[in-house]
Amino acid sequence: MSAPFSPRSxxxxxxxxxxxxCGGFVAPAPAxxxxxxxxxxxxxxxxxxxxxxxxSSANPQGASKREEAAQGFILDLRSGYTEGALGFGVDTLAxxxxxxxxxxxxxxxxxxxxxxxxxxxxxxxxAKAGVAGKMRFSQTQFRYGAMxxxxxxxxxxxxxxxxxxxxxxxxxxxxxxxxRLSATRLERYTARDSSDAQDIRLHCKNKRYACDTTGNRFDxxxxxxxxxxxxxxxxxxxxxxxxxxxxYLGAVGKRQLGAGKLSADLxxxxxxxxxxxxxxxxxxxxLSLLLAYAEGGHTLSAGWQRMNGASSMPYLxxxxxYLANYLQVNDFANPEERSWQLRYDFDLRSVGVPGLSFxxxxxxxxxxxxxxxxxxxxxxxxxELKYVVQSGRFKDLSLRLRxxxxxxxxxxxxxxxxxxxxxxxxxxxxF
Length: 431
What we know:
With about 425 residues, the protein is mainly β. The protein has helices spanning about 10-25, 30-35; strands spanning about 40-50, 65-80, 85-100, 125-135, 140-145, 150, 155, 165-175, 180-190, 195-200, 220-230, 230-240, 245-255, 260-275, 285-295, 300-310, 320, 340-345, 355-370, 375-390, 400-410, 415-430. It is built from 2 helices and 22 strands. It has an 18-stranded antiparallel beta barrel. A 3-stranded antiparallel beta sheet has the order 6-7-17, with no helix packed on it. The longest helix has 16 residues, at about 10-25. The two termini are about 25 Å apart. Mean pLDDT is about 90; it is low at about 1-30 and about 55-60.
């Protein structure tokens, strides 16, 4: 079971976190504390099949196939706040993963942890949990403990059986209408397929960076300004101490155009090495844009993404990069890479089939320059079909089929992939 927060947290944060946590348990529990709370249980069944198409488990990059199935349970308990000018509360996340099918030859899919005595064999079950104390004054909130951060500099990963948990502190304020300020410090994380909290580290996809590169802490400061109903502006800065620092500028706009709606999402990152530069030199600027037009049940999107600088865009292990061309398998974030995307979404409610939706997208990237000398191109095609039961005993049961095809011609750094994911998810509201 993972520790809910790091024992090396600063003394001030320890004190505030303990105050929030104890306040949630010790203070009298008036109606608001209970009535404004919620409890939700998600049962999630996942089948994962990734075929690297090389036909040999002796490949220096690992096994030729990864195929497992598992059952997950996620319990999300959230209290309201105690009454008074200063309110206290407590939130809890508890997760359990159970192996349904796995073999040593096809393990390490990201669904289940490896067994300690045999790294090719998955454990039968694992669990993790975290508690977060919280305080609220007016429109300002402070949280300390386990959290699922969702912000441009760090978006937690939930692409397998159980999500990644991060541990630290977060302060958010919305005292001014339309303006949201936040400050976040994280010091530990529990990976999606792990029970143990560990130091925050840099993601090492395709060995772009050393896989053991850790930082003392991750900090992020963010400003969101809702100019009007059709325009959101964002600025953020932060990074992983002694590894990299990063700045972000973003704008999301939407407006009515004819019978449909036009939307635009512009994202810019500027990243460089920091402090002791434990990952070596980092030099990257990432610009991406996604345009979409929706009418009826149809949405057509086009995206463009460009990497500048000598290195790839850095981001944390256990997170998803906030890029327009981040897909099911690939992120298209190699040094100097240029990529474009076409996407089509269809909500079949518009033709009388509520609950059924379809998505397909294609991204092509080229002009790649890797540090090991590789140059080349890559592409990915995703297809997704989803159905949500609309009524009856199994109302809100979600069935999802995800298929991805990825191809590359720089084989020393990446591998071709054919991937299928089947996901069944059922959310039960307990109160």
